[in-house]
Design goal:
The protein is of the alpha/beta class. The chain is built from 16 helices and 20 strands. The strands form five sheets. The chain has a seven-stranded mixed sheet with strand order 8-7-16-17-18-15-19. A five-stranded parallel sheet has the order 10-2-1-14-20, covered by helices on one side. Strands 5-9-6 form a three-stranded antiparallel sheet. Helix 1 packs parallel to helix 16. Bound molecules: flavin-adenine dinucleotide (FAD). The site of flavin-adenine dinucleotide has 36 residues, from helix 1, strand 15, helix 14 and helix 16.
């Protein structure tokens, strides 16, 4: 039986472990923290429960698949509800918009609120579907970097030339052309942030993301996002995967350009196969110091990070739901601050996630657990303490203005997480949420592959490598890695 070491118990690492163990490999997972899940974890304070990282759950079928391939019913481990309302949007001039899950309802609301013809919106969703259908199998579900008969440079050239994919314009340009109405353009521009990019730089193909929400739906896991991690962790343990916590891997041991083991707590442990779920930058810099690093790949600008205020709020807001967005007035300048000036604008877009809307036990009676987040640049040594101080004041002012309530007076619990904390908790380079940003049209090709030609038996999964960050793509990276390993071993 071949022995596999997985470095990191992030969801990509756990998903690779489940797949490989179920195929007959003997898998051990080494995790630096004393808990599984990496960014997908939770905590409690003063009677409030908070999901620490991800809050939006799409494509649950990728989680379910892990249970199905091991002959189990995912519902015995993990359950979730489908949301009718995807998000509530608030604009500074008092306009509010309820984004319904059903495309027809969304379009009807867009007509009522923004005076945009229903057909314009429904055509946009249709185009978004075409983009997804044409590219998902190629770019997301396979190892992009292993050229085979169906994917060669000719095919890629052809794809770039397909005008329906909108690869050669920015997302903002595509939205301005197809939607026109400025507020609705801003709303569709926001999808660039789903992988930590700017709508004014990321290619128009990102307009496929609304299809994921509108067609596949958005969900809320019973018990909170953390249940995704816990159900997968329990399944992995049941299958016999061994987990070692507080076990930071110090080096990947190689011999004649083959990975042959890892070093943990100064001990060398032999393995046939090594899978790194750690961010690809520290994987090279710290774990493979003697090997030549792919400098061009590692130098790709990072995606945005986050500044989060976890607030216990002693009030219940009727007009808020699970996901709520309070838009900045000048979106373009906000992104210019994040990606060019590398700081935070005084009027940031604020996202509030309130799980107690769907899971009342997450907050005391009559109260709400607010995960209040703004997009910020990755950590390149900014003065975060001063950024946090002014951002906190500006966020509270904005929310008090738009919700007609003194928010400061309602905060009875507070915990703050910034890019430095995200970096130190998960070893993500610069605390970026999604590895490299997708701020240019070649980004998909510049992500690190899931394997390394010059070091045999070494594989990579997680948000910093192909196909990218976010829960669904991380789960797919675990799948791609397990398929690559099965082919070669
Ligand atoms: P990570 O979660 O990055 O975990 C990597 C693990 O490896 C960590 O546990 C770390 O301790 C461990 N590790 C690193 N180095 C070593 C070592 N040397 N030895 C041992 N262990 C090591 N995604 C969504 O889909 N929806 C969202 O709404 C969303 N919102 C987000 C909000 C925030 C605030 C954050 C932080 C992220 C968000 N994301 C969201 C992104 C999502 O969380 C990530 O893409 C995903 O969880 C990353 O998983 P991963 O497998 O790459 O590993």
């Amino acid at each position: 039986v071949k022995k596999v070491a997985v470095i990191g118990a992030g969801i990509a690492g756990i998903s690779a472990a489940i797949r490989l163990q179920s195929k007959g490999y003997k898998v051990s997972v080494f995790e630096a923290n004393n808990y599984p899940g990496g960014k997908l974890t939770a905590f409690e304070g003063k009677g409030y429960r908070f999901d620490m990282g991800p809050s939006l759950f799409t494509m649950p079928q990728f989680v379910e698949e892990l249970f199905e391939i091991t002959g189990r019913n995912s519902k015995d481990y993990f359950d979730y509800i489908r949301k009718d309302v995807v998000c509530n949007y608030f604009f500074e001039d008092g306009t509010t918009f309820t984004a319904h899950a059903k495309p027809e309802d969304f379009a009807a609301e867009a007509e009522a609120v923004f005076n945009v013809d229903k057909k314009v919106v429904l055509d946009y969703f249709e185009r978004s579907k075409t983009k997804y259908d044409l590219t998902a199998g190629l770019f997301l579900e396979k190892s992009l970097h292993q050229f085979s008969t169906y994917l060669n440079s000719q095919t890629i050239k052809a794809i770039f030339n397909l005008s329906v994919l909108d690869i050669n314009s920015t997302l903002n340009e595509v939205n301005e052309k197809l939607i026109k109405e400025p507020k609705l353009v801003q709303l569709f521009n926001r999808f660039a942030t789903y992988n930590g990019s700017s709508p004014y730089l990321t290619p128009g193909i990102m307009s496929m993301i609304p299809h994921l929400e509108q067609h596949f739906g958005t969900y809320f896991p019973k018990g909170g996002m953390h249940q995704i991690t816990m159900s997968m962790y329990n399944l992995a343990k049941e299958l016999g995967v061994e987990f070692y916590f507080e076990s930071k891997v110090e080096e990947i041991i190689t011999d004649r350009n083959r990975a042959v083991g890892i070093k943990v707590k100064n001990k060398t442990l032999p393995f046939d196969i090594v899978v790194s779920n750690a961010d690809v930058v520290p994987t090279y810099r710290k774990l493979l110091p003697k090997h030549k690093a792919p400098e061009k790949t590692l130098a790709q600008p990072r995606s945005s990070s986050a500044l989060i205020f976890y607030w216990g709020i002693k009030h219940s807001f009727e007009n808020l739901d699970l996901h709520n967005i309070f838009f900045s007035e000048d979106y373009k300048t906000e992104f210019d601050y994040i990606f060019n000036k590398k700081t935070v604008h005084h009027d940031p877009t604020v996202y509030i996630n309130i799980t107690s809307k769907d899971e009342p036990t997450d907050a005391p009676d009559g109260c709400e657990n607010w995960f209040t987040m703004i997009n910020v640049p990755s950590n390149t040594g900014q003065n975060w303490d001063s950024i946090i101080e002014s951002a906190r004041t500006n966020v509270i002012k904005k929310l008090s203005r738009l919700l007609h309530k003194d928010i400061e007076a309602l905060i009875e619990y507070e915990f703050v997480l910034d890019p430095r904390g995200i970096e130190s908790k998960t070893q993500s380079y610069q605390g970026a949420l999604y590895g490299a940003s997708s701020n240019n049209k070649f980004a998909a090709f510049l992500r690190h592959p899931n394997f390394k030609r010059s070091i045999k038996n070494l594989y990579f999964c997680g948000g910093s490598v192909h196909p990218g960050g976010g829960i669904p793509l991380c789960l797919l990276s675990g799948k791609i890695v397990s398929e690559l390993i099965e082919i070669s071993h």
